[in-house]
């Protein structure tokens, strides 16, 4: 079996490739990735060097690149995306192009070849919940809040329309917030690991009481593998880590692992900031027998240890355009 994984030079996709190499060594893996600021070919090593994974550098919104990437494939796992909410507030055009146009380009090409697709969507398409609301189920209204989540909702809706209109085999996963190795350090957990370890102030949006459901990337990717192998065509699967924490609790947790007290700096909240996400994973548990395995304390300790050993990787990313983004996002708050 040959699988095309889009966006696998990024965080979740690279971890998926490593998991598939370990657990399904007979599968051929090809990656299509534009290597944007968030994508690093090094994330796929040692598999590029030993030839066990093929990387094609290209844009999911470019029909020619997509045609070439799909050649000889049996299934597509689509993760390529612009993925950061704050960046979508600073400028949303790239989100519409990659997440909506890119997904449409891939859907069209896969449909012509009669290829099944697993679309990695997100819990953020549902919008947010009040403190006492029940967790999102797959039938909850889609009500995105940010340009990022709206573009992901566009991709998700397009995929569902291809199921209904063309009978295409698309399976959709909607997962909560991931953490783990190789996440770009603009995201909350790696950003704060670096800041707390260096004794720098930690910017906290608003009151810091926003709740996210955290899942280790390895658990997420185990679910993606279950959906590749046993997911039903046209179905949506919600999944989460069964671990709801406020952003302040996340910072405290990192501080405990590092043995440092975070220096909190409360800053202006993110516009339109979702208050709470929570996922009901009953469907995927019942149908595919999947549940998250790694608990928060162990997963966080492993993640902190990984980042503490990756100074050269982090240093190469912290310079250049990443500094421009930090200034644009946090400088004016
Ligand atoms: N990170 C999370 O917590 C989370 C949770 C649920 C769902 N998701 C979804 O999972 C997927 C992966 O997220 P991530 O956190 O690994 O993101 P990421 O930003 O770390 O990686 C995205 C990858 O996509 C590539 N890419 C961007 N634009 C592209 C284009 N036009 N053509 C080809 N490649 C392109 C980038 O180079 C990068 O390698 C996304 O679809 C995201 O919406 C993420």
Task: Give the distinct bound molecules.
Answer: nicotinamide-adenine-dinucleotide
Strand order of the largest sheet: 3-2-1-4-5-6-10
Query: Which assembly state applies to the chains in this document?
Result: single chain
Distance between the termini: 49 Å
Work out the radius of gyration: 19 Å
Category from helices, strands and their pairing: alpha/beta
Q: Would you mind describing this structure in some detail?
A:
The chain is an alpha/beta fold and 333 residues long. It has a domain at 2-183 and 215-242 and 273-295: Rossmann fold, CATH 3.40.50.720. It is 42% helix and 17% strand. The protein contains twelve helices and twelve strands. It has helices at 11-23, 63-70, 85-90, 93-112, 147-166, 188-197, 217-230, 247-258, 282-288, 296-308, 311-318, 321-330; strands spanning 2-6, 28-33, 53-57, 75-78, 117-122, 170-175, 177-179, 201-205, 211-216, 236-239, 244-246, 263-267. It has a seven-stranded parallel sheet, with helices on both faces. A three-stranded mixed sheet has the order 7-9-11. The chain has a two-stranded parallel ribbon with strand order 8-12. Helix 2 crosses helix 4 (93-112), helix 4 packs parallel to helix 5 (147-166) and helix 8 crosses helix 10. The model has no long low-confidence stretch (mean pLDDT 96). The structure holds nicotinamide-adenine-dinucleotide (NAD).
